[in-house]
């Protein structure tokens, strides 16, 4: 399973100048046992949020910054 997830992540972010938003909608990614199976470069950017998180605002801010 993790190989498939990592391949999907790699299709979004292919090189240093790519950027994108990846949603891992599984509570298990909150646990180090699972999070540590993700690409090492992606782990620092992982955020766990609850349903009250204003995702739209944060994503808009991210893409505004990247322009």
Structure description:
With 67 residues, the protein is mostly helical. It has helices at residues 2-12, 32-35, 55-66. The model has no long low-confidence stretch (mean pLDDT 85).
SSE diagram, text form:
Elements: H1 2-12, H2 32-35, H3 55-66
Main attributes of the structure:
3 helices; single chain; 67 residues; 0% strand; 40% helix; mainly alpha
Query: Which secondary-structure class do the elements indicate?
Result: mainly alpha
- The number of helices is 3
Terminal-residue CA separation: 33 Å
Low-confidence stretches: none
> Which range best describes the helical content: under 10%, 10-25%, 25-40%, 40-55%, 55-70% or over 70%?
40-55%
Arithmetic mean of pLDDT = 85
**SSE ordering:** HHH
User: Radius of gyration, Cα only, in angstroms?
Assistant: 13 Å
What shape does the CA trace take?
globular
Could you write a compact summary of the structure shown?
This protein has 67 residues and is mainly α. Helices cover 40% and strands 0% of the residues.
């Amino acid at each position: 399973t993790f190989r498939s997830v990592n391949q999907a992540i790699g299709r979004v972010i292919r090189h240093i100048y790519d950027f994108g938003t990846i949603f891992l909608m599984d509570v298990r990614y909150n646990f180090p046992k699972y999070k540590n199976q993700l690409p090492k470069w992606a782990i620092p950017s992982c955020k766990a949020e609850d349903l009250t998180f204003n995702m739209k605002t944060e994503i808009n801010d991210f893409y505004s910054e990247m322009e």
